[in-house]
Amino acid sequence: MGVMPKEHSTDEDGLPITVAGEAPDRASLIGARVGLHVITAHLGEGRVGAVYAAEHEVLRARRAIKVLFPEWTQSATIVQRFVNEARAASSLRHRSIVEIHDCGQLTGGRWYVIMDQLEGSPLSRFRAAHQGPLSMHVATELLAPIASALDAAHAAGVVHRGLGPENIFLVQRGKNARHPILLDFGIARLGEGDAAALARAGKSVGSPVYLAPEQLRDPWLVDRRSDVYALGVIAYELVTGGWLPYQDLVERDSYRQLSAAAIAQRQLSWELTDPRRHTASLPEQFAAAILAALHPDPARRPPTPRAFALALAEATPAEGALPSGLDLVQTYASELLVRARPPDPAPSPDLDEEPAPPRPQAPAEAGDAPAGTPKLDAKPHGTPQDRADRERGSADSWN
Ligand SMILES: Nc1ncnc2c1ncn2[C@@H]1O[C@H](COP(=O)(O)OP(=O)(O)OP(=O)(O)O)[C@@H](O)[C@H]1O
Ligand SMILES: [Mg+2]
After folding, report:
1. pLDDT for the residue 20
2. Which domains are present in the chain?
3. How many angstroms separate the alpha carbon of residue 363 from the centre of ligand 2?
């Protein structure tokens, strides 16, 4: 029953037998069996592993299997992180988070994770295919569900760490052709911080443009506010037509080639170009929300992805047939409107994060409002920065 490996000799687990000394061919896993899944195709490779298409031979469900490169599984620290993160991520259930089905080790020791196979393409491709800036409306519509997904993850103690437009997939869901789904919780930047593993792998850590300054200092000392930063970079990129926050106006194509250290140095300066230099039509309040998310001091950022997405939504006016940002959020991520207080920052104990603070007595607020009667935060008054400060103030009382 099912698809049997045809073109390869296999061992008792159905894995292809590789002759000792032979360079392991990435594609050689095609036809291999992983539990009840049979690998059917090679989908691509990222920094930490290769991704294969697979089919569950009984359920016929289409899955994707990410198999870590061998070098990532030679370090006990990395394996422990990988397992912890897979365990935590597998408990997340959210319409904008890919479902994790299984995690284990192949015969040779390589670790894998099995998830839903998504039919669609990454946000990076959608953005690049679009000529020029995306509208505030599209950006808000794409980012609000992602913010909701991140809030759900943070509430469960999982920080993404590797958020970027490659790890947000756009799929068809009902009438929505661009429903965003988050991939790779905790996995995308697995090897960072393990200098030995990186040296063995001969790999660079990749461009740090989505990494928050605190993450550049210590890749594992991050919390949910590092994800807010990455969301800020993505928002910047979407509404400016592909420019990045610290990119000089002349270095459009060369910026990503700068050394990680050079990029990191700029990120710490907070001397970034206002997104309105690229897209003059952006409202000041919208640009200010993005700049606040990119603050080098995590305490000065919107405290949660939710707060950031709401700030973007509030700054997006209705325009002609286009609804306001708040109406869009109502449609795509209405939970952002009803949960008025930030999720508990309860990190999982293995993630080297600050311990969860004791929870103060909560005053009755909109989070307690019955579903269906969303109570919004007070409409912004004063400058966006004032408002961001107020949001932070209320969040800080939780910390
Ligand atoms: N669940 C999935 N369903 C379908 N395609 C996927 C899935 N996960 C990953 N892919 C595809 O497999 C390829 C490799 O993904 P991978 O996550 O390894 O790299 P990446 O996202 O480019 O970089 P990173 O290492 O930062 O995650 C990409 O083309 C990605 O679009
Ligand atoms: Mg990825």
Report:
1. 31
2. 26-116 (3.30.200.20), 120-337 (1.10.510.10)
3. 40
